[in-house]
Amino acid sequence: MRIAIDMDEVLADTNAAKLTFLRERGYSFTEDEMTGRKVTELVSDEDAARVETMLHRGVVFGNVDVIEGAQEALARLVEDHEVYIATAAMEYPASCVHKVAWMERHFPMVPVLNLVLCGDKSIIAADVLIDDSPRHFENFGGIGVCFDALHNRGQDVAHRLMRWSDAPDLIDRLEQERAQ
């Protein structure tokens, strides 16, 4: 199968970087407060704008942590599938060089030519798209798999990936269903 995988909050823990930035400004949130909401919805307009400015500078994207289990799961997936990384990097154009360097450092098993820096993910020609934002599934021609995150809990999706360790089995199941 051809699998497209989002970067931010799927492979890269950009939410943790945002939370660190906001904690430095005196904010603290419970898991319940963050469930179903983006952290920028929980702060003042001025601080939400500061988060956006940080993201637009791009550097933060090169220094985020890897989501737990992602490296192991992708190492397994690339053995049997075509794996592409599809990130809406054009939302933050200055992030591109940092995202490519981050991928090369943390996911060397994914060839750099398999990195797709885009905006609208409906152009992606893949069987499966794993993404934390279900909005990307609306015009996507394949199967959308929502990677679980606090901000997307409560959203109704056909397929949800709770953790990376479940990915190989989920992909196998989707492949079997598609073959029937």
Question: Which descriptors would you attach to this protein?
Answer:
6-stranded parallel β-sheet, Rossmann fold, 6 helices, alpha/beta
What order do the helices and strands come in, and which of them pair?
Layout: E1 2-5, H1 14-23, H2 31-34, H3 45-57, H4 70-80, E2 82-87, H5 96-106, E3 115-117, E4 128-131, E5 143-147, E6 160-161, H6 167-179
Parallel strand pairs: 1-2, 1-4, 2-3, 4-5, 5-6
- State the CATH superfamily name: HAD superfamily/HAD-like
Reported CATH architecture: 3-Layer(aba) Sandwich
Shape designation: globular
**Would you tell me which CATH topology applies?**
Rossmann fold
Sketch the topology as an H/E string, one letter per element.
EHHHHEHEEEEH
What is the helix content?
Answer: 25-40%
GO biological process, one term: pyrimidine deoxyribonucleotide catabolic process
GO molecular function: 5'-nucleotidase activity
Family: Belongs to the 5'(3')-deoxyribonucleotidase family.
Organism: Palleronia salina
Report on this structure.
Helix content is 34%, strand content 13%. It is of the alpha/beta class and 180 residues long. The longest helix has 13 residues, at 45-57. It has helices spanning 14-23, 31-34, 45-57, 70-80, 96-106, 167-179; strands at residues 2-5, 82-87, 115-117, 128-131, 143-147, 160-161.
Brief summary of the model shown:
This protein is an alpha/beta fold and 180 residues long. The protein is 34% helix and 13% strand.
